[in-house]
Design brief:
By secondary structure, this protein is an alpha+beta fold. It has a single domain, classed as Histidine-containing Protein, Chain: A. It has three helices and four strands, in the order E-H-E-E-H-E-H. It has a four-stranded antiparallel β-sheet with strand order 1-4-2-3.
Amino acid sequence: MSQPKATRTVTVTNKEGVHARAATLIAESVRRFDAKVVLGKGCERVEGTEVLQILSLGAAQGEQLLLEATGQDAEHALEVLLQLFADHFSENEQQT
């Protein structure tokens, strides 16, 4: 039986991009779900549970990331990640 799969694209809106705190929040969120999540930028693909790998993408403000999830909680995992990005990782910064 094939695993549920979901894919979304998100734009990084934080001034600092996906920095250490944001990468940690992503990894912690992904670990809560029964899903394998991969983040991609260009040709690079990294595990959504690995903070250093997420940081290695160097995702800056305005860049797009591909979010791919496979597993029972695939859709829900991506919805939570999209909300993290939409909420600017709970950072208090004015968006210009």
